[in-house]
Amino acid sequence: MRTDFLTDLYGYVKKNDYSGYDLFDGLNAKLPRYVGLYKSELFKLFWIQLNKRSPINFRPLFITPREFNVKGGALFLLGLVNLYVASGDAKYLEDMEYLYSRILQKRIRTGSGSGFGYNFEWKARAFSVPVETPNAVTTVFVAKALLEYHRRSQKDVAAILEEMKNFLLAEMIKFEDDKKLCFNYVPGKDAEIHNANLLVAAFLSEYYGLSGGKDGKLKEKIKKAVDFSVSDINPDFSWPYGTKPFHRWVDNFHTAFNIESLLTISSIFPELALDEIISNVIRYYLKELFRGDGTPKYYNDRLFPINIHVLAGTKILLNKLSGMEAKFGIDPERVRQITNKNNEWIEKFRSPKGYFYCQKNRFFWNRIPYMRWAQAWMFYALSTDLLNAD
Prior knowledge:
The protein has a domain at 1-22 and 290-390. Helices cover 54% and strands 7% of the residues. The protein has helices at residues 3-15, 30-34, 41-53, 70-87, 91-105, 136-153, 158-171, 194-210, 216-230, 252-268, 275-288, 308-321, 325-328, 332-349, 371-387, and strands at residues 19-20, 67-68, 108-109, 114-117, 122-123, 128-129, 134-135, 173-176, 181-183, 306-307, 359-360, 365-366. Strands 3-4-7 form a 3-stranded antiparallel beta sheet. A hairpin with a 4-residue loop joins strand 3 and strand 4. The two termini are 12 Å apart. The mean pLDDT is 94.
């Protein structure tokens, strides 16, 4: 992939101070609040979906502020760490420290530790979440960024990582029995989401290794979480988003998240013998979540929308799998085919101004430059090419 894409994107996000609009920030609009429309839960659901799906950006009209999203900040930090590792240029350290400080400003103290959440009220079909409510996914992406920052710069992040670990273990376990455990996406909500559960398990695995690998109780919880999510894989090795009847879809980037999490967990706990499961899920992913020519599909049963998040997730995962083809029985030619087609689509999604569009639907484009959903993910994804360069 052309390095100028990353350079130009870096300039764009710095110019905007890593802040902007988000795909899900519809309820940050001030005008509907001023006239009392947010008193209706039905209107709130309609409004967030309208802002999410519309190719026209209503946010300036309805007074929606451009804000810093902490998950986006974590992705930018991950990308900067990769830039620093690839170049050795100390200039990136200043930006890394700046993002680290901004991320910590968003820390949410809880009864047991610390977590991180979104800068918008989040209303989904299964639950509604107030602004700045700590959730598992955002917390784990911050933890992942801090871990990489520590590894490459020796930044002392032990205290905040312990706070996040304590929050996840004390407040985010939805259920636990003798054999299985599920980490919640959001505290107290009735939803069992596999990518959230496995992201927490992957972070706790890394924490386990970083802290000396002596906590048998933590290891047991990780194993239970893995068993819970792996047991819900379909017979054809497709992986549903969650366990609720309305969460049984199979999509591209959440499957990629699950594969990445299992790779991390397996690297720390090879005794869990996850290689065969990983191989089978990867085989399904490469065959069924891309068309024959390598074009990325959003869902296993339909192509559209072609989404920037999917393009970024594909690049990140395929770069992570580089060198593991023999281990997992991956067809290198299929990977090359998907990589080439994915890069073609990334070029189509790139604005001449250096940022990336959101998605292409069957009949129209959404070219809104979302900061977290598009720019942060592509910044991180493009940075992984640098580590994977010959």
